[in-house]
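Aim 2 progress update. The chain analyzed this quarter is reproduced below.
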Amino acid sequence: MITFRLNMRHTIPQIGIRNQQSTVDDSHMIPAEVHGNNQQARSNKGATQARIDIDSYQSRHAYGARTMNDFTSERGQRGISDVQSSDSRHTQNAWSNIENAAKRGNYIQQQAKSRIFSEANQRRYLEIQHIPKPQITVSDPSQVVGDSDLGDVSAEITTNPSASIRTTPGSAETYIKDQGFFRAWISENKYDIYA
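Predicted structure tokens:
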């Protein structure tokens, strides 16, 4: 027995759309232009240096500072005096030791003791003197000199009330991407699956 089968195949039509969005290519404000002169005011003034002479030698001398001339003069005189007194004292001590060393008693001990007490009594007194103030002399006082410059500050502004805009318009287009079809046929005893 022969059986006939009805086979069908179809596709659905498809619509395609091509579109291009609009874009803003350039958009900016036209900036204002400023033209001006900016010369700042200046004082153009300055102070001259004062001339101050300070003579502090007498104050420093009271504390022990010396010029080389004073130092050498004082030390030279003191050196001569010390040599003379030492020479005289040593000579006297030597003769006294020669004459009295062989005698009874503690002559050397007593002599040393008297020398120590003599030096202690000499150092017992302090001499206090007034320290003079330094002499300060202003020979050329400070002065303000120069002429002021008032300057010049001015400005001119040019503005533009509009903006600059450049655009590319968009577009849209539709088309039939696939038209679709419908097909039918008859086969014997079975379906044509892959037809």
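The chain has two domains: 1-35+158-195, 49-144. DSSP finds three helices and twelve strands in the chain. These observations will guide the mutagenesis experiments scheduled for the next reporting period.
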